[in-house]
Amino acid sequence: MSATLNPVIGREFFGILRSPKAFGTLLAITIVFSLAVLLRWPTDNTADLSGQDSIQVFRVFGYGLLAGIVMLVPAFPATSIVNEKNSGTLALLLNSPLSGPAVYLGKFLGVLLFALLVLFASAPGAAACYAMGGIDLLGDLGLLYVVLILLTLQYIALGMLISSYVHSSDAGVRITYAIVFSLLFLTQAPGLLFPGSLSAFGGVIDVIRFASPLPIIMELMRQDSVANTGLISQSGILWFVAISLISTIAYATVTLSRLNYRLFDRSRSKGIITDDQSLGTRLARRLLFIVDPQRRKAGIAWFLNPVMVKEFRSRKFGRSQWLFRLIAVCAISSVVLTLAAATGVTAWGTETIGGLMVLLQVVLIVMLTPSLAAGLISGERDGGGWELLRLTPLSAFRIAWGKLLSVLWTLSMVLLATLPGYLVMIWIRSELLPQIQLVMVCLAWTVLYALAVSAAVGCLFRSTALSTAASYIAVMTLFLAPLLVWLGRDAPFGFDLVQNSLLINPVGAAMSIMETPGFAQYNLLPQAWIVAGAVSLSMFLLFGLKVWRLTRPV
């Protein structure tokens, strides 16, 4: 269907392309992937008949392209429907001669065309990678692009489904990225804990694992599967294709069923306060809830920052009942992961277990921090609350400190929730105590680092959705780029370049301290802490300067 038959396609597609950031992204992708191949291009008359050099470059290319799809694609469909609904144009579209399915198809194809441009921008790098030899055109490059196209379709359908349910664009971005990360990484957890199972439960684990493209991509890159179970490529690919297509169709069907006038109906509960209930109800709720969300809150104490309290009480995720649930999940996950190794469920050593725990914590930090910190300023400006803050006697420093402190408390509690797993490791091997202490310092720097970058990037934008998406992209780039360089160690990147790249954030230092395979040979302390401190300080200063400028009289 062309844009002339469905004007929504052209409206969505050209609306994305009009942004200078979109053009800059396409140009950057083309340059980066081409340079990644050219850096390893042979400079003499010898040829690598084994194909090892080309495979190493292909790994950097494939993982980089996967990261690009994960970071860029979900942001656009996650705001597609909710922006139309909030601006009032969705009602006009549904009242136009276009049907609901035509509107959905137009928006879907508009975002898909931009996503295909992102894939096509990598074509020069793919051609150069194939020219180096050792890479099959259909079995490697062709299959890689098929997997990424299916993943793109799934993410677009998922983002539009989330966008049809949420009431703000920033909520759509946050929830979509959280689900994308869960599908990408958390689906691998059952296979990691129970590798090689031959029971019916093992078949369920394989199905769950193939909801993510990681096992397929790792096999294409000539690497072991995530669970090291020696998967059969053909069956794995068929499972991934089936799961991705079925989920895409299911997401699209549910969204189409909602794309009508009932989408504008929003039921609102009258609400109920626990203090107004009978004595028996109040006693029952005190037994069932550690923190009762319906209980009247006490006044703000004089020693507390009122902006911090305001953030905790007005931010849904910041409320205590959700925070306690997250902490419980983190604590249980860390203990289960450690006990799985201690009881012989897996054949991993403490080095691998420690590395996985670090990755678990980093994934949580990367998932949570941009969603909490990106909208600290833009959310107030979007909702009109910033003018109220300016009318208060609070100084710019106290406003900035209160907002940052509200996110820092949340992230610190999540970080501390994984301590039980480390305590089990110390109980098993007491000599690990000095290593774990250094790892905790690295993770503390990671929290400050992610918070500083997310807050600084987010405060540069007025729109909450745009600031959230930009913060996610910035944080994921800073955390994933060193790992992509690490994947290309020895070919095409040398030891010094890999070590300097791992200094960008403290995660590599934590992995090297735990002597995780592939990281043990790098000496990253104390340089990684110095870099993290310098970057965090500069980002906090940028955030504070922006708050100070916004509090000045116009």
Report what the structure shows.
The chain is mainly α and 554 residues long. The chain has 27 helices and no strands. The chain folds into two domains: 7-40 and 51-189, no CATH class; 305-551, no CATH class. The chain has helices spanning 7-17, 20-38, 52-72, 75-78, 80-87, 89-95, 100-120, 123-131, 137-165, 169-184, 189-193, 200-209, 214-220, 233-258, 279-288, 306-314, 320-342, 350-373, 375-383, 385-391, 396-417, 419-428, 433-458, 464-487, 495-502, 507-513, 527-551. The two termini are 49 Å apart. 40% of the residues are buried.
Strand-helix topology:
Elements: H1 7-17, H2 20-38, H3 52-72, H4 75-78, H5 80-87, H6 89-95, H7 100-120, H8 123-131, H9 137-165, H10 169-184, H11 189-193, H12 200-209, H13 214-220, H14 233-258, H15 279-288, H16 306-314, H17 320-342, H18 350-373, H19 375-383, H20 385-391, H21 396-417, H22 419-428, H23 433-458, H24 464-487, H25 495-502, H26 507-513, H27 527-551
Contiguous uncertain segments of 5+ residues:
225-233
Q: Bin the strand percentage.
A: under 5%
Question: How helix-rich are the residues, as a percent range?
Answer: over 70%
Number of domains: 2
Structural class: mainly alpha
Main β sheet profile: none
End-to-end separation in angstroms reads 49 Å
How many DSSP E strands?
A: 0
The overall pLDDT average reads: 79
Based on CA inertia axes, which overall geometry fits? globular
Helix-strand pattern, N to C?
HHHHHHHHHHHHHHHHHHHHHHHHHHH
Number of helical regions:
27
